[in-house]
Backbone:
DNA sequence: ATAGGGTTAG
């Protein structure tokens, strides 16, 4: 039965829609809301519906709706009702507009504490911390309102968010005056305030003095330690939290809080956090995101990708932008181009672009998979602007692919766009110069770094410069450069010098570098072959055996080299001397065939070169064929001539495999992109983009 | 009618 009001049905339908909507609307629902015919004529809506619609205005896109509603509420003289006025203030604040909220606030003749609390919170949520504190300080006997247990958490949040320790201390004093020290919410806010102001000791004191603690208290404490770089303390707090019986149980906030402490950590800690994760009854999206990020950042890319798959497929949880930003680096690390592309499609389908973080992550993924054009396409299509990270991504991409001049041009374009380069941008640029052998350019930019941009060079910049000079054959100069560095040279610096000595066959400086390296990191697997070979060549047999002993006594084994290639939707892994593949016989046949042709072209296996990182037992036989060669042969057998061969290797490729790949690319007229632990080698027409230096 | 902690990139 309908009345004569033609909008009665619409009112009913509208009411149903309102009830069905969640409190926070996803963006497409917001658009629906704005286009609703009922809202074009809100005068036909009942008071109750108007108020229900008001509750749904929580997003900037609903601002026009809100303004219409507001004027109708004024027309109906409902705006002076305190609870309605509060709703209007909150809605404006959620839409990012504090001024109209303040107007409502100022227009209320009798403001009780709730008005103050809501107004202060509006300011805090919109980043206007000083406004919030200003209003807070106006409270008091003069205006007839005293701050209460709702006011303090908000006021403290204003201090936490702006790192305002001074204000925080004053508020803490005030908290004590009002006897709210033991309030749970106030205590939690105090912990965060101290932690965010760099005082995790104070935060811990507050925590210890609290009579009630809940999961938020623990999370605030853990986050405090984690954000202040006290990773061990953060883990200790999490462990204590876990042994507390029953309550409080860790929640997704716990996972997010511990995150910074375990982004770069030991595998034992990753295992521990994984246990926490597994024990959580209701893991939300945030927990999955955090766990994926932890794996991805600790070089456990396969685990990151596997967790991502489980989350989507088995748990049916919808990934969001943060999930993608966390899993994309893992795709890059694995050169899982097919998965990376799938994720890119998914991102487009979900209309998550433009999003700078995602676009940067996509660029990085494509660059790491050896797809420079795809990385460039993402860069060119960025609609929401580019930041230093975006530019650094694309500069790195060109740099590692050997296009130093393009990297320099991009760097200049970045400057032209008004952005200021930071430390990492310079690492990227200097490496690009170094990879491309642009000696003078590298020196020039190293100079501008301090002269123009007031950046103090860090150890990684010095390592880049040593690499740059060394590559140019300026070994004496490189050595001098190290000697006058203001920082203590580390293994990267000496490693760069040793690498240069290998390429330029300089024994005397090579031995100096080797001695330093041996002193610094005798056990580091990456250097040990080089070290023992250079000592052997110099006839220093005692040092040879010391290197070997250091290796075995510390129980460190050489990381087994392996090469990954993607064929179809599968990743195939090859190890040294691998005979496990069904096509093994064919692979070795193919390699022998190629070897014959290579020898005709003057190839000799580099097994006796003292300055080369080839192992003793590495002869031409089956047992010692390096994984790169197997992977290349496998791809030659299984793909047509038009297919670009992409290989991912976990170590630095050796000189022998490099020469072999170069010759094979020439003989077979195939393009080969080999990514080793250091950089890309793009073999085309018998030439390598790295200029035979790496 | 009002409150506290936490997640993503080079």
Residues:
């Amino acid at each position: 039965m309908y009345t004569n009001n033609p909008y009665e049905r619409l009112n009913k339908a509208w009411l149903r829609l309102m009830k069905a909507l969640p409190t926070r609307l996803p963006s497409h629902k917001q658009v629906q809301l704005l286009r609703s015919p009922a809202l074009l004529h809100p005068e036909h809506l009942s008071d109750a519906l108007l108020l229900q619609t008001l509750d749904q205005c929580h997003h900037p896109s609903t601002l026009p709706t809100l303004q219409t509603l507001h004027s109708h509420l004024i027309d109906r003289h409902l705006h002076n009702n305190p609870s309605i006025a509060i709703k209007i203030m909150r809605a404006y604040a959620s839409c990012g507009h504090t001024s109209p909220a303040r107007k409502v606030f100022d227009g209320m003749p009798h403001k009780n504490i709730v008005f103050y609390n809501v107004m202060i919170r509006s300011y805090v949520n919109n980043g206007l911390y000083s406004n919030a504190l200003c209003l807070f300080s106006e409270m008091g006997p003069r205006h007839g309102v005293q701050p209460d247990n709702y006011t303090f958490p908000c006021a403290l949040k204003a201090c936490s968010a702006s790192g305002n320790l001074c204000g925080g201390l004053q508020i803490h004093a005030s908290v004590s005056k009002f006897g709210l020290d033991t309030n749970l919410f106030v205590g939690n806010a105090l912990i965060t305030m101290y932690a965010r102001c760099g005082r995790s000791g104070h935060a811990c004191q507050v925590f210890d003095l609290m009579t009630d603690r809940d999961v938020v208290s623990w999370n605030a404490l853990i986050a405090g330690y984690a954000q202040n770089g006290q990773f061990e303390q953060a883990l200790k707090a999490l462990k204590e939290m876990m042994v507390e019986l029953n309550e409080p149980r860790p929640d997704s906030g716990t996972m997010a809080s511990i995150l910074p402490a375990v982004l770069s950590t030991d595998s034992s800690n990753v295992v521990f956090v994984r246990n926490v994760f597994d024990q959580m009854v209701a893991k939300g999206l945030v927990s999955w995101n955090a766990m994926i990020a932890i794996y991805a950042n600790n070089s456990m890319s396969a685990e990151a990708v596997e967790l991502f798959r489980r989350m989507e497929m088995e748990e049916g949880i919808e990934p969001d932008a943060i999930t993608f930003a966390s899993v994309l680096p893992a795709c890059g690390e694995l050169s899982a181009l097919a998965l990376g592309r799938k994720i890119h499609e998914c991102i487009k389908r979900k209309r998550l672009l433009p999003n700078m973080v995602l676009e940067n992550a996509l660029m990085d993924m494509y660059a790491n998979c050896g797809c420079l054009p795809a990385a460039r396409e993402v860069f060119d299509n960025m609609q929401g602007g580019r930041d230093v990270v975006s530019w650094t991504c694309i500069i790195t991409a060109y740099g590692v692919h050997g296009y130093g001049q393009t990297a320099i041009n991009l760097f200049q374009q970045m400057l032209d766009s008004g952005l200021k380069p930071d430390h990492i941008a310079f690492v990227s640029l200097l490496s690009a110069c170094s990879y491309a052998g642009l000696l003078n350019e590298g020196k020039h930019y190293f100079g501008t770094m301090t002269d123009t941009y007031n950046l103090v060079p860090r150890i990684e910049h010095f390592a880049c410069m040593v690499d740059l000079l060394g590559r140019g054959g300026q070994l004496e100069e490189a050595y001098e450069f190290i000697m006058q560095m203001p920082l203590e040279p580390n293994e990267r610096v000496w490693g760069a010098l040793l690498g240069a000595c290998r390429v330029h066959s300089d024994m005397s400086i090579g031995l100096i570098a080797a001695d330093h390296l041996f002193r610094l990191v005798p056990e580091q697997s990456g250097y040990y072959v080089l070290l023992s070979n250079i000592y052997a060549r110099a006839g220093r047999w005692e040092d040879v055996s010391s290197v070997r002993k250091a290796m075995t006594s510390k129980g460190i084994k050489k990381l087994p080299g392996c090469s990954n290639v993607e064929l179809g939707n599968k990743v195939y892994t090859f190890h040294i001397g691998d005979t496990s593949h069904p096509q093994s016989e064919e692979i070795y046949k193919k390699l022998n065939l190629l070897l014959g042709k290579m020898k005709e072209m003057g190839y000799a296996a580099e097994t006796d070169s003292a300055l080369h990182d080839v192992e003793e037992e590495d002869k031409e036989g089956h047992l010692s064929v390096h994984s790169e060669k197997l992977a290349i042969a496998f791809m030659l057998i299984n793909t047509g001539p038009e297919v670009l061969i992409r290989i991912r290797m976990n170590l630095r490729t050796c000189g022998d495999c490099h020469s072999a790949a170069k010759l094979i690319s020439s003989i077979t007229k195939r393009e080969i992109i080999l990514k080793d632990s250091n950089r890309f080698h793009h073999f085309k027409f018998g030439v390598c983009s790295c200029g035979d230096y790496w």
